[in-house]
Design brief:
By secondary structure, the chain is mainly α. The chain has helices spanning about 5-10, 15-60, 60-70, 75-95, 100-105, 105-125, 130-160, 165-220. Helix 4 packs antiparallel against helix 6 (about 105-125). The longest helix has about 55 residues, at about 165-220.
């Protein structure tokens, strides 16, 4: 009994049992990798968001605002939305009298660019959520499969020895239940972190929309609605 445990379970399991454990281990590593990376990304975005927005509106002219946004880190989403909007406005202005202007007015062209930018940055925020949702819903069943398979083989060995006392049955069955514990240990953090990141992303998406509306008002009409600070 003193030799029973996880190491003994690994040595006694067959290829199917080892395969199930490897799958659960991959789920475990992937889950905590996405938890760590998404936490760092969300913290970075939320800590810099207000500063980036204020930097844009406090610049003295659109060209300076564009240079300030270009100076932001590549992973910073608000500056990329502002740059796409500024580039769209400049592109439309450079093509006065062309078919582009005839097909789309300035407001529609800028709105389309903003929608594409917000969609792109929103998709980046969702990286890893599919993995967390999938692991949260499947890890308990993968662990349960490993447990059932382990109990099946344990009972076969017990039947072969002809001994069915509690001290003989408890150890191998208890070892098999370890797989269910591991599956739950992976699934619970996955579900909790998924819900947390969905909520955090919802707040960030709301900031995207608010900033995009202000950008559209400014580049389409030349003035920010609400009388807030704006490039002059």
């Amino acid at each position: 009994m003193e030799q029973m445990g996880f190491a003994h379970l690994w040595e006694a399991s067959d290829y199917v049992g080892k395969f199930v454990f490897v799958i659960v281990a991959i789920m475990f590593v992937g889950t905590f990798w996405f938890i760590i990376t998404n936490s760092m990304r969300n913290f970075s975005i939320r800590s810099r968001a207000q500063k980036v927005i204020e930097t844009f509106w406090q610049t003295t002219n659109p060209n300076e605002a564009k240079r300030a946004m270009e100076a932001q880190p590549p992973s910073e989403p608000f500056s990329k939305i502002a740059l796409d909007c500024a580039n769209a406005a400049a592109h439309h202005a450079q093509n006065e009298g062309s078919r582009l202007v005839e097909a789309l007015n300035r407001s529609e062209f800028i709105d389309r660019a903003l929608r594409q930018a917000v969609s792109r940055e929103s998709a980046k925020l969702e990286n890893g959520l599919t993995w967390l949702a999938s692991v949260g819903s499947t890890a308990p069943f993968v662990g349960l499969f490993g447990t059932v398979w382990g109990i099946y083989h344990a009972l076969i060995k017990i039947g072969a020895t002809g001994q069915a006392s509690l001290d003989v049955v408890a150890a191998p069955v208890g070892e098999a239940l370890i797989m269910t514990c591991i599956g739950l240990g992976v699934a619970i953090p996955s579900v909790l972190s998924y819900n947390f990141f969905v909520r955090a992303n919802r707040v960030t998406l709301s900031q995207f929309d608010e900033f995009a509306h202000d950008l559209h008002d400014y580049f389409a009409t030349g003035a920010r609605v609400g009388g807030g600070p704006q490039p002059t």
